[in-house]
Design goal:
Oligomer: single chain
Number of strands: 4
Bound molecules: zinc ion
Structural class: mainly alpha
Length: about 170
């Protein structure tokens, strides 16, 4: 067993925390980062970086801050292999995300229009496979940490491009 001998700086605390938390808590934390990335990506793609994004199903605009804008799944997040797939998750308002399986029909159209039928088929196939197998695949701790690192770094790139967003989130 290794002993943490470094100073109690925030960085070493974070590293320690990363090792100790349960996998479920880690997955939740990674989702927070990924979800934030998705909302900012869509805001950027729609020409309103750092400010707001339109729900991909009802097209209503929502501010990035405040909680009314979610990152909604086309294929359910219970299919772990595509829970963090960028083509499967988009900016969605709270109403659409919670209503009728996240307005899956309209979301399907958005996926086809945006990425093409092959991506749509691939995502649906993941769901079909998931229904068939008894032991559902889980993401490993390493996979989750890699996803977190990837999206933290992408968010950092956004923050350097759009500093107004960084200032607000630090408050
Ligand atoms: Zn909506």
């Amino acid at each position: 067993m290794r002993t943490v001998t470094s100073k109690q700086g925030s960085k070493s605390k974070r590293t320690k925390k990363r090792k100790q938390i349960t996998k479920a808590a880690l997955e939740k934390r990674v989702w927070t980062v990924f979800s934030k990335y998705i909302r900012h990506r869509d805001a950027l793609n729609q020409g309103t970086p750092g400010v707001s994004a339109k729900c991909v199903t009802c097209k209503e605009s929502h501010p990035l801050k405040g909680g009314s804008l979610h990152a909604g799944h086309f294929i359910s997040r219970t299919v772990r292999t595509i829970k963090f797939d960028e083509c499967n998750v988009h900016a969605q308002c709270q109403g659409c995300n919670y209503r009728q399986s996240g307005e899956q029909g309209i979301h399907a159209k958005y996926v086809i229009d945006t990425y093409g039928i092959d991506v749509f088929n691939k995502l649906v196939q993941e769901r079909i496979n998931h229904l068939k197998i008894k032991k559902k695949p889980e993401l490993t701790r390493k996979e989750l940490l890699d996803i977190e690192d990837k999206y933290l770094s992408l968010l950092k790139q956004y923050e350097s491009k759009y500093p107004m967003f960084l200032k607000k989130s630090k408050k």
